[in-house]
Amino acid sequence: MSTSEIPGALLGPAEIRDLAGRLGIRPTKTLGQNFVIDGGTVRKIVRSAQVRPGERVVEVGPGLGSLTLGLLEAGASVVAVEIDPVLARLLPETVERHLPGAGAGGEGRLDVVLADALDVTDLPGPPPTALVANLPYNVSVPVLLTFLERFPSLERVLVMVQAEVADRLAAPPGSRTYGVPSAKVAWYASARRTSTIARSVFWPVPNVDSALVALERRDPPPTTASREEVFAVVDAAFAQRRKMLRSALAGIAGSSEGAVAALRTAGVDPEARGERLAIEDFARVAEGVARPSAPGRTPGTVDA
């Protein structure tokens, strides 16, 4: 019998509540915890992520293991990053009970890393090719950007985040929701919002909607500027959204004149605002800002 045919391989609502109750676990707002209690939603996430048998997948915030079991059921090997020591200790036991042999023993398809995801710089086992996770709401964007930066082996990402965050991550230049997360994610990947997730599939029920965002890794725009220099320009451009770029970039360019020179060199209207620029535009602007010969700029004023 394949793992996909094992009855009860996933956690149900009653078992999740019973498991949490026996351990004295209550989902906390501090850690942004909302546990998925619907098996159909778990399998929808796994299908949408196009997880392949034998693929190495990293999951951030596995919680009680609902999605972990779904990924293992699909034949993936999983490295799960969990900040809560009680949940991290419990996860292999839950996996072994529902999918015997898939945990640390037997096939050994599960590794658990007890750590804050923002502190992780290395993962055990083969490099992961996919990130699939129900990300904690309060750190979803920093975690996503951190893993895209630190793990270039990631080819695909499917994350469940707050719907408002999903809109920002997938927003194109010029849209109302386009901002720092949109531009920085675009450095690494193309992003699209795929579907909305009902509040009722979570415990506790959140007071916001959730959505799935799919990312496909691509090369960053060709540029002589570093990622840090480009991101510094992005941050400055959106620090005060209503400012024209000539003013918004004056600080990192050394002066308003230096900003104008960099913008004109990049082919960008100095009176435009940040929400009009694609990541390729920001990269060209960063080249001009970082160039010591830019008028009105003192070498070394860009904080990389």
Could you explain the architecture of this structure?
- The protein is an alpha/beta fold.
- It has helices at 13-23, 39-48, 66-73, 85-98, 140-150, 163-170, 180-188, 227-239, 245-248, 250-253, 256-265, 279-290, and strands at 35-36, 56-60, 77-82, 110-114, 130-134, 156-162, 189-197, 202-203, 210-217.
- The chain has a seven-stranded mixed beta sheet, sandwiched between helices. The protein has a two-stranded antiparallel sheet with strand order 1-8.
- The longest helix is centred in the first third of the chain and has 14 residues, at 85-98.
- The relative contact order is 0.10.
- Residues 1-7 and 294-304 have low confidence and may be disordered.
Descriptive key words:
304 residues, alpha/beta, 9 strands, 38% helix, 16% strand, disordered C terminus
Question: What is the secondary structure topology, with strand pairs?
Answer:
Layout lengths: L12 H11 L11 E2 L2 H10 L7 E5 L5 H8 L3 E6 L2 H14 L11 E5 L15 E5 L5 H11 L5 E7 H8 L9 H9 E9 L4 E2 L6 E8 L9 H13 L5 H4 L1 H4 L2 H10 L13 H12 L14
Parallel strand pairs: 2-3, 2-5, 3-4, 5-6
Antiparallel strand pairs: 1-8, 6-9, 7-9
State the gist of this model:
With 304 residues, this protein is an alpha/beta fold. The protein is 38% helix and 16% strand. The longest helix is centred in the N-terminal third of the chain and has 14 residues.
